[in-house]
Amino acid sequence: MNAAHGIAPAEAALPFAEAIGQFRAAHAAAATFTVRNPATGARLADVPDLGRMEAGHAIDLARKAFTGWAARTAKERCALLRGWHRLILDRQEELARLLTLEQGKPLAEARAEILYGLTFIEWFAEEARRVYGDIIPTHAADKRLLVLKQPVGVVGAITPWNFPNAMVTRKVAPALAAGCTIVLKPAEETPLSAIALHALALEAGIPAGVVNLVTTSRPGDIGEVLTASHDVRKLSFTGSTEVGRLLMRQCADTIKKLSLELGGNAPFIVFDDADMDAAVAGAIAAKFRNSGQTCVSANRILVQSRVYAAFAERFRSAVATLEVGDGMAPGTGVGPLINAAAVDKVERLVRDAVARGAKIVQGGARHALGGNFYQPTVLTDVRPDMAITGQEIFGPVAPLMVFDTDREAIHLANDTRYGLVSYFYAQDMSRIWRVAEALECGIVVLNSATFSSEATPFGGVKESGIGREGSKYGLDEYVEIKYFCMGGLQG
Ligand code: NAP
Which are the contacts of 391, defined by CB distance < 8 A and separation ≥ 6? Predict the structure, then answer.
């Protein structure tokens, strides 16, 4: 052990080993839990296993820091966010490596995530300076009517493991820009990226207490403390619908402002006038990025009957070329799943689909690499009564379903309690408008598999969530509107 920072020899080679050691030293009294590499099972680091008491302490720190932070000018907050941005940019390669080590995604995807995460810091640093209020035409001669936008206060944030970096910046940056302070609980599988981001925020001069980090293996305890606290005025959660529902219930007692970015069940519709090459390439990207472990992964691929056979064969042969491996290995296109439970779930869904009549035309089993690896898989003859179409697969399995008419496609696409994103491929303008307007979701994507940016609103409808992240709407989630009526004015 390095006595100063408690860095064990095995950890020393890890990017941000010193920051991890410092964070652990700051919580020296706490027990620890181990973070492992999902590709190899190797132990990466031990991090503090914080509980209710430490979460309460973090809320206190955030409450105390709030007044000073909110009182800073927007320009000052903008400058500090820009400083954080610059430090992340300088160390992007280390952050990407750390991300792949703890999460498993191919290094190229990790690099892209760091850049994507950075865009939110840049965007909200700029937006901090544009939190304009209003002056409303008066209803009485002696009154003037104004609208002020003020920070909500202390924010609680809970993030998932599938984007350990970008889901953190997508919440922390707008909260800080608005003048809020924050208590962040990152996912248990991937706390190292959050520890690194936290260290860089402090290094950038963002005052202690403005961003507070609570790493834990007891998410329920921390969730209860955050939701029960009267000091926490807003909760922003990204994760499963199941946990989102629980947190929403818990927030009822203190009537918190709430943002929920939850699960999805994205339809990916290929109409018979689609550009087939583009549709195949899009389906590969929308399905296999992050090994299918994203809320916007194509979960059901619906193909019109006239082009079904041709699409299925072209898609299958493209899937057959995907290279599975450790995210650190050059050439890897599909990494491991996050843990053994995720592989079990995928296996169960494929087994159920096959028992109900689906056919495996590619993959369909655990990968020869063993551990958390699963073969990129294509299933045909999938029907709506199969479990695989009703829930997030969160794995590299593509179920193909057939439809005849546009009406049927829209019915199938909307036949889910989720409503995050829908993809479709088509050329005919009338069809495009009809379908885009009929799909029940927060995001519709035509003839593309990529769409997310800091400038556009991200979020779902139905059981996919409440609120939007990113874009000009993203800051609204962190401000309260105050109507200021100035009366008694002399004419
Ligand atoms: P999850 O199990 O809901 O976990 C998300 C976060 O909630 C983690 O930090 C987790 O901690 C924590 N958590 C678990 N139980 C909790 C409780 N009782 N109280 C408070 N916090 C609790 O989801 P996940 O498996 O990590 O992430 C995948 C899910 O996130 C998918 O459903 C995906 O679609 C969704 N997602 C949505 C978006 C979006 O923008 N809509 C983006 C990315 C992911 P632990 O890590 O300790 O379990």
Answer: 265, 349
- Considering the domain architecture, whether residues 225 and 190 belong to the same structural domain is answered as yes
**Which single residue is written with the structure tokens 């035309």?**
361
Rounded CA Rg of the chain: 24
CATH number at residue 108: 3.40.605.10
CATH number assigned to the domain comprising residue 356: 3.40.309.10
Task: Give whole-number Cα distances, 312 to 360, 401, 424, in Å.
Answer: 12, 10, 16
pLDDT value at position 4?
A: 41
456-486 pLDDT per residue, tens: 999 999 999 999 999 999 999 999 999 999 9
Strand pairing report for 257-261 and 232-238: parallel
CA of 262 relative to ligand 1 center, distance in Å:
8
Ligand 1 centre distance from Cα of residue 238 (Å): 6
Q: Do 19 and 90 fall within a single domain?
A: yes
pLDDT of residue 9: 60
* Distance (Å) from CA 194 to ligand 1 centroid: 15
> Cβ–Cβ contacts within 10 Å for residue 407, how many?
11
**Which residue carries 């009537």 as its tokens?**
255
241-263 confidence digits (pLDDT tens): 999 999 999 999 999 999 999 99
Residues 78 and 186 in one domain: yes
Range of the domain at 172: 9-263+465-483
5 pLDDT higher than 60: no
Q: What mean pLDDT do residues 110-116 have?
A: 98
Atom 20 (ligand 1) nearest CA: 223
Against a cut of 0.70, is the pTM above it? yes
**Residue 1 counted as domain residue:** no
- Please give the distance of CA 71 from its chain centroid, rounded to a whole number: 30
pLDDT per residue over 96-112, tens digit each? 999 999 999 999 999 99
Active site positions, annotated: 261, 295
Q: Based on the structure, what is the number of domains in the chain?
A: 2
Same domain, 245 and 104: yes
* pLDDT number for residue 1: 40
Instruction: Answer yes or no: do 213 and 143 share one domain.
Output: yes
Q: Atom 28 in ligand 1: which residue has the minimum CA distance?
A: 239
Residues lining ligand 1, Cβ inside 6 A? 158-163, 167, 185, 187-189, 219-220, 223, 238-240, 243, 246-247, 261-264, 295, 392, 420, 460, 465
